[in-house]
Amino acid sequence: xxxxxxxxxxxxxxxxVVVVAAWGDIREAFGYLGKVDLWILALIIPVQFVxxxxxxxxxxxxxxxxxxxxxxxxxKVTRMALELNFVNHVFPSGGAAGxxxxxxxxxxxxxSSGRAIMAQIVRFALTFLSFVLLLLVALxxxxxxxxxxxxxxxxxxxxxVLAVGATIGGMYLLGSKKRLDVFATWLTRSVNRIVxxxxxxxxxxxxxxxxxxxxxxxxxxxxxxxxxxxxxxxKPFLWAILANIMDVVLIYIAFWSFGVQVNPALIFIxxxxxxxxxxxxxxxxxxxxxxxxxxxxxxxxxxxPTTAIAGTLLARVLLMLLTIVFGYAFYQFTVVKYGKAPTxx
Length: 345
Hints:
There is one protein chain. By secondary structure, the chain is an all-alpha fold. 78% of the residues lie in helices and 0% in strands. The protein has helices spanning 3-21, 23-31, 38-41, 44-65, 74-90, 96-107, 113-144, 150-174, 177-198, 209-228, 234-257, 264-279, 289-300, 305-338. Helix 5 (74-90) runs antiparallel to helix 6 (96-107) and helix 11 (234-257) packs across helix 14 (305-338). The protein starts with a helix and ends in a 7-residue tail after the last helix. The model is unreliable at 341-345 (pLDDT under 50).
């Protein structure tokens, strides 16, 4: 059986797991449809595609500045960002599956693996930094509105510390070739050790230290180039701000369709907490944990529990279904078109 056939079977299996895991939420969310303004709710579709486009442009505006992928138009950028979101949602790997898939996809457009990963690091770093900026704005709005308590302030500061800390940690690692060499050695040995244990010694290794070191050298070189020319990050940073705003607008629309006006600043903080919680669990797309954290925070901030549950579930389920339907179609088309990754040919 061909590799692409196996890949399709695995993807469909995981897709079924995602749907089954969220089936209770899906049924409950569809039960709310009779209570909403469908015209308002329909705004989620164009806003979600704007969100995907902004997410893609964080990566592609950086790559264009480096002289890559100038041929991609708006539709292709949106489509590739949607594929990335689909893979991250279906394959519960903390974003690793999406990074690997996107690097392979970019390699079809002449982008080296090191630069592809660096572009995604830029995306995550700028998403974090723009999130902190918007978080401070949201917190200021709540303080001015006299609708903030100590718990909200504490959680907001915790989010800011996590985002800034992750960014600084990444910059510290990338700033030294020696540290990257040490990390490459550790990563290679750790992964190969796990492979030997899982295969009971039948497979000795899957990573080669020389290849991993070369890969990190590419990333290090791009990082040094960014330090020399920081203006290269201006456009990606602006796209990161837009992407963060659009993610909150999507949730706001769900509440608005119920005729409920929830302070966007509250939604922004709740979204940040839920996203972090959902990223560290093994359930597909953070299912269960994301909704729990979102509802808990909104309820503690004064949003009626029934409203918090209805708005959160409706937004979550609709966004998941749109991602699955369109994302799978584009993902499958790409797999059929390109087949195996270059390393598997």
